[in-house]
Write a structure and sequence with these properties.
By secondary structure, the protein is an all-alpha fold. The protein has two domains: 20-218, Clc chloride channel (Orthogonal Bundle), CATH 1.10.3080; 234-419, Clc chloride channel (Orthogonal Bundle), CATH 1.10.3080.10. Helices cover 65% and strands 0% of the residues. It has 19 helices and no strands. The longest helix has 41 residues, at 18-58.
C-alpha cells in the first residue's frame, strides 16, 4: 500500500536540484523562441501574399508571368539544396519521431537549418500566389527550434529528444492558430500517443507558452474570423449531414490525389514531371495563376480572407465553382513541389462547401454550416477529427455547436478513410523508406505500407539520391523493375 507523499521532503528535493530547474528554464525559453518563430513566419507569409494580391489588383495579368517563374525558382531551390524542407512539414516531424529513425539521423528531417529554409521557401510560395498554408509548415519550424534545446539539457534531465519534437510540433499548431488546446490535442492525436508522465507537464507548459506568445503578439482573434452561431436546432441535421458527407468525399479525394501524385502514376503528366520537374512546376504555377486571375486571388493563398468574407456577408460569388477552383489550385500547388501546408486551404475549402450547401438548400443556418464544413474537411484531409474539431471550436462564439462539430468531423474522417490512406502517416512512411534506401512497394488503393512516411523526387538531371524527401516530391526516377 502506497504511503501519502511527504510534502516537505518533496519540496526540499525540488528546490535543492538546481540543474532540474535550469533544464526547465531551457525548455520554456526554447518554447518562447518557437512561438516567436511561428509569429515571425506568419507575418512574413501573410505579408508576402498580401503583396501578391496588391500587385494582381494593380495589373490583372501579373500572376500569369510572376507565378510560373517564381514557382519554378522555389521548386529548383528546394530540390537543389533543401529537399527535406519540402511539403507540409508534418510528415518530416512524424519521420523524425518514428522508431526506425536512428537518434543521430533525426536532424535530417528536423533542424534549425531546415526551419529557416522552410520559412523562406513557404514565404516564396506565398509570394508566388500559390494555394498553400503556413500552419502545417509551422510544425516543422517550431519542432526544429525545440529540437535544438537538447544540446543545452543535462544528461539526467529526463527530457528526451522525442518529447522535444512532439512539444515543438504541437507548439507550431498552437501558435499558428492561436489555439493552445488545439496544439495539445494535435500532439496526442497525430504526433504521439505516448508522453512520459514525469515530463508531460513541462511539455504541455511549453506548448501553452508558444501559444500564448502568438496570442500576445497577434491577439485572440482567429485568422479565419469569429464564427457567431445562434441557437442550433434539428433543422441543421440534414444539411449538416450533407456537408460532412461531401467534405469526407472531397477530403479523401484530396488526400488520395496528393499521395498518388507524389508516388508517381503511369501517365503522361507524371512522365513529364519525372523528366522535367522544374518545367512541370512552372506549368502548375501557370494553371494556379489563371485561377488567381479568374477569382481575383480569392481562391489562392491560405484562403482566410475569403472565409472571413463568407462569415460576414451572406452574398457570395461563384457558388460551387469557387470551391472547386480552390480545390484544384490547392492540389496543383502541392503537386508542383512547392513547400506549403494544407491546414489553411482545407479550412477554406470546407467553408466553401458549407456555404454552397446552405445556398443550394436555402438553409437559414448558413454560418453554422460553414463552421461544420471547416471542421469536416480538415478532419477528412488530415484524418485527425479531434484536432480539427478543437481548432474550429476555438473560432466558434460559444459552445452550442460542440457536439455538431464533433459529429461532422468524425463522419467526414470516417468517409475519408474509405477512400484514402492517412495522408501524413503515408507520406512519412514513404520518406523513411526513401531514407532507408528501399522503395515503397504499394500504390494508392492497395495494401498500405507498415508505418508512417513521405517521398522525394530526384534531382532533374541526376538519379535519385538515398536521402529523405519531403511532401511534394516523389521517387519517380526509380528503375522500372522496382515500382513506385
Amino acid at each position: 500500500m502506497k504511503r501519502e507523499p511527504d510534502v516537505y521532503a518533496n519540496l526540499r528535493h525540488e528546490l535543492s536540484d538546481s540543474r532540474r530547474w535550469l533544464d526547465r528554464v531551457v525548455v520554456m525559453g526554447f518554447a518562447v523562441l518557437a512561438g516567436l518563430a511561428a509569429v515571425g513566419f506568419a507575418l512574413l507569409a501573410d505579408g508576402a501574399f498580401d503583396w501578391f494580391a496588391g500587385m494582381q489588383a494593380r495589373w490583372w495579368w501579373f500572376p500569369l508571368v510572376w507565378t510560373p517563374a517564381l514557382t519554378a525558382l522555389v521548386v529548383w531551390v528546394t530540390r537543389r539544396w533543401f529537399k527535406a524542407a519540402g511539403g507540409s512539414g508534418v510528415p518530416q516531424v512524424l519521420a523524425a519521431l518514428d522508431p526506425r529513425t536512428p537518434e543521430e539521423s533525426r536532424h535530417v528531417f528536423v533542424s534549425l537549418k531546415l526551419a529557416a529554409a522552410k520559412v523562406a521557401l513557404v514565404t516564396g510560395g506565398c509570394l508566388a500566389g500559390l494555394s498553400i498554408g503556413r500552419q502545417g509548415p509551422s510544425v516543422q519550424v517550431t519542432a526544429g527550434v525545440m529540437f535544438a534545446a537538447r544540446r543545452w539539457l543535462s544528461p539526467n534531465s529526463g527530457i528526451t529528444p522525442r518529447e522535444l519534437l512532439v512539444a515543438g510540433g504541437a507548439a507550431g499548431i498552437a501558435a499558428a492558430f492561436n489555439t493552445p488546446l488545439g496544439g495539445i490535442v494535435f500532439a496526442i492525436e497525430e504526433l504521439s500517443r505516448r508522453i512520459e508522465t514525469k515530463s508531460s507537464g513541462l511539455m504541455m507548459a511549453g506548448i501553452v507558452a508558444s501559444g500564448l506568445v502568438a496570442v500576445s503578439v497577434m491577439g485572440h482573434l482567429s485568422l479565419f474570423g469569429r464564427v457567431r452561431v445562434g441557437d442550433v436546432g434539428w433543422s441543421i441535421a440534414w444539411p449538416g449531414f450533407l456537408v460532412a458527407l461531401v467534405c469526407g468525399l472531397l477530403g479523401g479525394l484530396m488526400a488520395r490525389l496528393i499521395i498518388a501524385s507524389f508516388l508517381g502514376m503511369p501517365d503522361r503528366f507524371c512522365a513529364y514531371r519525372r523528366k522535367w520537374p522544374i518545367r512541370f512546376a512552372a506549368l502548375c504555377g501557370l494553371a494556379v495563376a489563371v485561377i488567381a486571375v479568374l477569382t481575383q486571388t480569392s481562391a489562392v493563398g491560405g484562403g482566410h480572407n475569403h472565409t472571413r468574407a463568407l462569415l460576414e456577408d451572406s452574398s457570395q460569388s461563384l457558388p460551387v465553382v469557387w470551391t472547386w477552383l480552390k480545390f484544384v489550385a490547392t492540389w496543383l500547388s502541392a503537386w508542383a513541389g512547392v513547400p506549403g501546408g494544407l491546414f489553411g486551404p482545407a479550412l477554406s475549402i470546407g467553408a466553401g462547401v458549407g456555404a454552397d450547401v446552405a445556398h443550394l438548400l436555402d438553409s437559414p443556418d448558413r454560418v453554422a454550416l460553414i463552421a461544420l464544413g471547416m471542421a469536416a474537411f480538415l478532419a477528412a484531409v488530415t484524418q485527425t477529427p479531434i484536432t480539427a474539431m478543437i481548432i474550429v471550436m476555438e473560432m466558434v462564439d460559444g459552445y452550442a455547436m460542440v457536439l455538431s462539430l464533433m459529429a461532422a468531423a468524425l463522419l467526414a474522417s470516417g468517409v475519408s478513410r474509405l477512400i484514402s490512406r492517412p495522408l501524413y502517416a503515408t507520406l512519412a512512411d514513404l520518406m523513411l523508406r526513401r531514407f532507408e534506401g528501399t522503395e515503397p512497394g504499394t500504390m494508392p488503393g492497395t495494401a498500405p505500407p507498415a508505418g508512417p512516411s513521405e517521398p522525394q523526387a530526384p534531382a532533374e538531371t541526376s538519379p535519385a539520391p538515398a536521402t529523405p524527401a519531403p511532401e511534394g516530391h516523389t521517387p519517380e526516377t526509380a528503375p522500372a523493375s522496382r515500382p513506385t
